[in-house]
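Two proteins follow. First one:
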Amino acid sequence: MTKSRNKNDNTTAFHHYKVDVFNVAIDQQVIELEDRFSSQVTELLSLCGPLDPRTDEFDIENTCSLVEKILSS
């Protein structure tokens, strides 16, 4: 059974692109990144986030974890 084009199914174009297209694209990129990098590299990259000068947050615990991981490598 197909929906009639005249019926409103409460799906806007914005919702379609935001949810149906954008989320699928992000999921595919995450899968590709997980395939390319090991879990250790991914963890190091996530711990580098607080070192970004564009952010107002500086998480000292993550920074200490990053330093410990680098020193133990």
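Second one, unrelated to the first:
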Amino acid sequence: MHHRMTLGSAWLRGLAGAVLLAGAAPLAAQNVAEACQGCHADYYDSYKAHRHGTKSDARTPANNGECVACHGAGALEHAQKGGGRGVGGVINMGSKTVPAATKNAACLSCHQGGNRIGWQMSAHAGNDVSCTSCHKIHVPNDPVRDRFTQTETCFGCHKEQRVQVNRPSHHPVVEGKMSCSSCHNVHGDNPKQLVRASVVETCYSCHMEKRGPFVHAHPPVQEDCGICHQPHGTTISNLLKARAPFLCQECHSHTSHPSQAGQLTTGRATSPGLLGSVARGCLNCHTNIHGSNSTQNSATAGRFRR
């Protein structure tokens, strides 16, 4: 009798264990996002509408661990224990207490490469900017990927540039014809996080007529367009940092009229040396200021005249 009871108890214990295993297995194997849906329905719905939730794309988290792919193994433990604040060690991408490096590691596990290959050496990474500081994952369309809304994300930190692009002379950013990412690779490690290796190469991608080579080259043009231009916007035409002749006189201060101050003459005069800069701009005569191929008046052809 005692022997039969012992066998019966063992069988019951085995049955109970089997039931527990059978109950736990589906949670471990099922789509974790569906388990999360019970408490996080809004995030679940927006995730499914986002590119990350596209099951037809083998690269997405929808086919590589769902919520666990971004929120860490703690997301599975969180779901298995029934949820609750602080349960399971979920990586909260929106939390300020989670280090930026931890958040970015989740994104870089898939998005490391291409124009993001230099992220770790970029200015944004060096200032502890996380991917989720700019990108919104649980929305159908990420605002920072839309040229009409991208600038608002960038201007959240770059407030000086917000003012500049609204000045009278500016690139067509506020009009939506271009965006910050037209010139900047925010994931890269180029100077000023530009899309090309230098300022001039970036500008030449649109302003090809300024590239040359020219017979008579203007050194600032080849060195850095930013010497004369403020690309985000100014109150002066052609995005110039200052009006001529003052801009030109920052470099051209030798004898003759380049060094003359903008002031009225003291008497009647017709000589350029006496008229100074009254009612004149350097570009009225030096029209080919970016470079010239002129062979006329060879003695002064290098002065970029018309």
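SUMMARY FIELD: The longest helix spans residues 2-29. The chain has three domains: 32-91, 115-195, 216-262+273-303.
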